[in-house]
Amino acid sequence: MLKNDTFLRALLREPVDYTPVWMMRQAGRYLPEYCATRKQAGSFLLLCKNTDLATEVTLQPLERFPLDAAILFSDILTVPDAMGLGLYFAEGEGPKFERTVRTEEDVAKLFVPDVNTELKYVMDAVSSIRKGLDNRVPLIGFSGSPYTLACYMIEGGSSDDYRNIKTMMYARPDLLHRILEVNTLTVIDYLNAQIEAGAQAVQIFDSWGGSLPFGKYQEFSLQYMARIVAGLKRENEGRKVPVIVFTKGGGQWLEDIAATGCDAIGLDWTTDIGQARRRVGDKVALQGNFDPVALFAPPAAIEAEVKRIIASYASAGEAKTGHVFNLGHGISQYTNPDHAAALVAAVHRFSGKKA
């Protein structure tokens, strides 16, 4: 039995004693202990593939902060890497792929990998982390959305304008739909394998879906995420496995996202959480939505912003149900860990957690 299941109960809109909190990218370069472990591993990718070290860095933030959930240490781009695209990380440039998917020939070569073989190291990490957690808090598994994965696969890395994928979307939508089909089938297999290995909740990161125009978002991103939600194993170890859908920049589509069948919607910092709650009602829980850059402000300002977000959520209904506090995107590598500690403490204090 979990010693602290507040996070899972909040996602399922069950009554909780306080608002649970975790941080996207909570195991990362802002922590000196993470940097030391990454140096020991030799590279980011080797760290992801080393079961013991991936377990170690997943647990590191929980040793510092009283967080209410752990998230698997991995990367969304392990999926296209398993498809043979050759993921590597260029120093100072972020993720890159040796091969892109831009032509009919490229698309024809795409395949759904055997995730339990090609991504076995991820499942090994999930199992190992669960043992390391010893039921302290739940473990979150995750994947990129089909569209976000396609952005990297087609662009070959990060992009400012998504020119190649959007050109394909307008000129050859059939090719893009084929890529998204393969990605969707893979993500369903991948998340189900994580659940089987012990993940107690899963999140779909649609990091770049917000770059799409209205209508195109529904066609090229949302419908595929809805298929993933429908294809997931939703119960394990005797309890429901909640699903969170997070589209950065997707605040205008909350009603559509809620209709996918997910349990919770992740919000970035551009949407007022109280207004979001009024729009979706009791259909889903909400996760978010502190601006990660606000963590560079003094602790008093961090606390004021935490208080504002909690009050905004409470203004639209019962305070202690359906809210998971989080950042609106990943924590910056330049964040002072003491400021992250101030955030976590403020969430617990202002939402009524007893000492």
UniProtKB/TrEMBL annotation:
Pathway: Porphyrin-containing compound metabolism; protoporphyrin-IX biosynthesis; coproporphyrinogen-III from 5-aminolevulinate: step 4/4. It is found in: Cytoplasm. Keywords: Cytoplasm, Decarboxylase, Lyase, Porphyrin biosynthesis. CDD domains: URO-D. It catalyses: uroporphyrinogen III + 4 H(+) = coproporphyrinogen III + 4 CO2. GO terms for cellular component: cytosol. This is Uroporphyrinogen decarboxylase. It comes from Chitinibacter fontanus. PROSITE patterns: UROD_1, UROD_2. GO terms for biological process: protoporphyrinogen IX biosynthetic process from glutamate. Residues 20-29, 140-156 form the Uroporphyrinogen decarboxylase (URO-D) domain. Substrate binds at residues 25-29, 75, 152, 207, 329.
